[in-house]
Amino acid sequence: MTQQEKHTEANWLTSAGLRPTRQRLALAQLLIGDGNHRHVTAESLYEATRDGVDKVSLATVYNTLRVFSDAGLLREITVNGARSYFDTNVSNHPHFFWEDTEELMDAPDEDLKIAQLPEAPEGAEISKVDVVIRLRRS
Amino acid sequence: MTQQEKHTEANWLTSAGLRPTRQRLALAQLLIGDGNHRHVTAESLYEATRDGVDKVSLATVYNTLRVFSDAGLLREITVNGARSYFDTNVSNHPHFFWEDTEELMDAPDEDLKIAQLPEAPEGAEISKVDVVIRLRRS
DNA sequence: TTAAGTGCAAATTATTTGCAGTAAG
DNA sequence: CTTACTGCAAATAATTTGCACTTAA
């Protein structure tokens, strides 16, 4: 990790009003380190830290994912009653979900065209729209 | 509940290859008894049985919802990491989810027009498409 | 009669929390 | 220094499961 990259991750945190602690920087590096978007679960991210130098406890991974989500750095995607997924791409975009492996991935955003969306009932506004395309191996 | 209604519910079960037991009939009645579509959680359905004559254990409610889903009588909707919802309307249609009360309801199907949908990757087919419109009280 | 269904209590899984210690501003 | 953050272990919440009993076919 170069100085430049460290700077990017620290900025990602501080711009959201979060302290760049050792653990948060380690998680940030795993999440946005290579510039690609990523879909993680608490468990998968925890596993990833176990391969690195900077260990982070599982409880902190859970708490940090929640903090990052609340701060708008991640988007929580609910596809599976059991596990929560977090996406580093926080914009509205569709997902593929492989039912057999429980893997979540982005679907090409440009291939989803919603011509009309139901409008929010009186007294409500749309907070977000989740489109999940569930896939079965054929 | 009239004889006619009992017949409807027994048919609902047997047409899916399920034995119409006392417990399943009681749950079926609560689910499709009045002909309206319904969104339930295991807990909410269990609560409903507690007001009736036919008691059903919570474990059986859980098991039965799973069995009904697997048989195609219900559709499981995942909106909330914690709880599972089941919809008596098994067709593809959009949902509103109230974030504050965690209430799930149908969104008007005719108001959702998807002009283009990403196609399934090689080796996969679309099993279903979930569209959940999350609402914030304004 | 017999395989499927049920109910209880215990087990499991994902996640959160209390609290004492640690570190960032 | 002082308040936020971390880590552990214990708590919680939703759901599943093992197993003896019951019931539909």
Characterization of this structure:
Chain A has 138 residues and is of the alpha+beta class. Helices cover 33% and strands 25% of the residues of chain A. The first copy, chain A, has helices spanning 3-14, 22-32, 42-51, 58-70, and strands at 39-40, 75-77, 85-87, 95-98, 103-106, 113-116, 124-137. In chain A, the strands form 2 sheets. Chain A has a 3-stranded antiparallel β-sheet. In chain A, strands 5-4-7 form a 3-stranded mixed β-sheet, with no helix packed on it. In chain A, helix 3 packs across helix 4. Chain A is globular, with a radius of gyration of 17 Å. The relative contact order of chain A is 0.13. Chains A and B meet through strand 6 and strand 7 of A and strand 6 and strand 7 of B. Strand 6 (113-116) of chain A pairs antiparallel with strand 6 (113-116) of chain B, so a sheet runs across the interface. Chain A binds a DNA duplex (25 and 25 nucleotides) through helix 2 and helix 4.
The biggest sheet of chain A, with number of strands, parallel, antiparallel or mixed sense and barrel status, is: 3 strands, antiparallel
Question: Oligomeric status of the shown chains?
Answer: homodimer
Shape of chain A: globular
SS-derived structural category of chain A: alpha+beta
- Total number of helical segments of chain A? 4
Strand order of the largest sheet of chain A: 1-3-2
Low-confidence stretches of chain A are: none
Sequence of secondary-structure elements of chain A: HHEHHEEEEEE
Instruction: Kindly report the greatest chain-chain contact and the residue count on each side.
Output: A-B, 41 and 41 residues
- Overall mean pLDDT of chain A stands at 94
Helix content of chain A: 25-40%
Radius of gyration of chain A: 17 Å
Calculate the terminal CA-CA distance of chain A, rounded to whole Å: 41 Å
Beta-strand portion of chain A reads 15-25%
